[in-house]
Design goal:
The structure is a single chain. This protein is mostly beta strands and 353 residues long. The chain folds into two domains: 1-20 and 152-273, no CATH class; 35-116 and 127-138 and 283-353, no CATH class. Helix content is 8%, strand content 30%. The chain has three helices and 21 strands. The protein has a six-stranded antiparallel beta sheet with strand order 16-17-18-19-20-21, with no helix packed on it. The N and C termini lie far apart (50 Å). 50% of the residues are buried.
Length: 353
């Protein structure tokens, strides 16, 4: 791994100083700040990790679709379109559900570091982001309730290339720098053929450009990170990361400890989870989440036909938990048995408007 890295402790000191100097007048603190922080990936406030899918893929119509999670990693009924109010796409003037087409979505506590989960949208074609504040009840998002267009954050300062994939990094940056915790999550990004860590300021949506190179060589050790995508979920505010080759279908896992080692400049080998089968054609949507609350990040994947499969992870291998068709609401057990669509007895239907 090359040493294309900026002085971590110097930047962290600046970030920590900014956090320490911030007052309630400069922080963006939501009205829900007194509420209990929602669990990771829970957008409807019921304590279970949900699945969020950008439309125009997986046989879904344009928009941003929320499939409510159930206990044990399942999903309930058919998803609701929390992007029904639309979002203004690049070059557009009016919000539309089609404005979500081609975007990436990252769920996290971006508004204040606590309370309901929010949605960070990223347009890799133009290197632009937008932060939409979560409602906490799964109701549709409003692009006027959030942060304006984020530009420059996801673009290389040397080559001007745009990041191809981004993910939630939690408190990885300030933990590595041994600074005071910053409640706003940092980001991980695939940029210029490497895996980067981006610190955040003491404001919602206040991300610094890519700052620390974690790895120049891809997980398979066969070249750089071009053609790889990442997804994370947090464990005790630290990210666990799955990386997959978009074309080759290999899937690797980096534990929070491995990512911390890389941030500190020490080597850390990822775990090979699957040698094939996780390519973007077969599984256009892959989302990390702790679906069974055991403290180990699991995976969900959506195929082109809208079948959302859940996989329990034990740190080395994945075990299929069955799938749920987002269009019909029908469940399929790991052995192939299909159950009739309908409400799960232990889970309410997703909130709809």
């Amino acid at each position: 791994m090359s040493q294309r890295r900026s002085p971590l402790h110097a930047r962290a000191a600046m970030v920590v100083a900014t956090v320490a100097a911030a007052t309630l007048g400069t922080l963006v603190v939501p009205a829900q700040a007194e509420t209990v922080t929602a669990v990771e990936n829970d957008l409807n406030g019921d304590g279970e990790a949900d699945l969020v899918v950008v439309g125009n893929q997986g046989s879904l119509a344009p928009g941003l679709w929320l499939a409510a999670g159930t206990a044990g990693g399942g999903l309930a009924g058919t998803p609701s379109n929390i992007g029904a109010a639309g979002v203004t796409g690049v070059g557009g003037s009016n919000p539309s559900p089609a404005g979500y087409n081609g975007l990436q979505v990252v769920v996290g506590h971006f508004r204040s570091g606590s309370g309901p989960n929010d949605v960070l949208l990223y347009d890799p074609a133009h290197g632009l982001g937008k932060l939409l504040y979560g409602t906490g009840d799964g109701s549709p998002l409003n692009e006027l309730v959030g942060k304006g267009v984020l530009s420059g954050t996801f673009t290389s300062r040397t080559t001007h290339a745009n990041a191809t994939s981004i993910a939630n990094a939690g408190r990885l940056y300030t933990t590595a720098a041994q600074g005071e915790p910053n409640p706003f999550p940092a980001l991980l990004s695939v940029l210029d053929g490497a895996l980067w860590l981006q610190p955040t300021s003491a404001q919602s949506g206040g991300f610094f450009p890519a700052e620390v190179v974690l790895a120049d060589t891809n997980p398979a050790g066969t070249g750089n990170w071009n053609g790889w995508s990442i997804t994370t979920a947090l464990v005790d505010d630290m990210p666990a990361l799955f990386a997959r080759s978009e074309a080759g279908g290999q899937l690797y896992y980096y534990s929070p400890a491995a990512l911390l080692s890389l941030t500190l400049g020490s080597p850390a080998a990822p775990v090979l989870v699957a040698a094939q089968g996780w390519d973007a054609a077969a599984k256009p949507v892959v989302q990390a989440a702790d679906v069974d609350h055991d403290g180990i990040v699991d995976l969900r994947a959506v195929d082109p036909s809208g079948n959302a499969a859940a996989y329990r992870f034990d740190g080395a291998t994945l075990t299929a938990l069955g799938s749920h068709n987002l269009l019909t609401g029908a469940d399929t057990a790991p052995g192939g048995t299909t159950t009739a669509p309908g409400r799960h007895p232990h889970k309410p239907e997703p909130h709809r408007h």
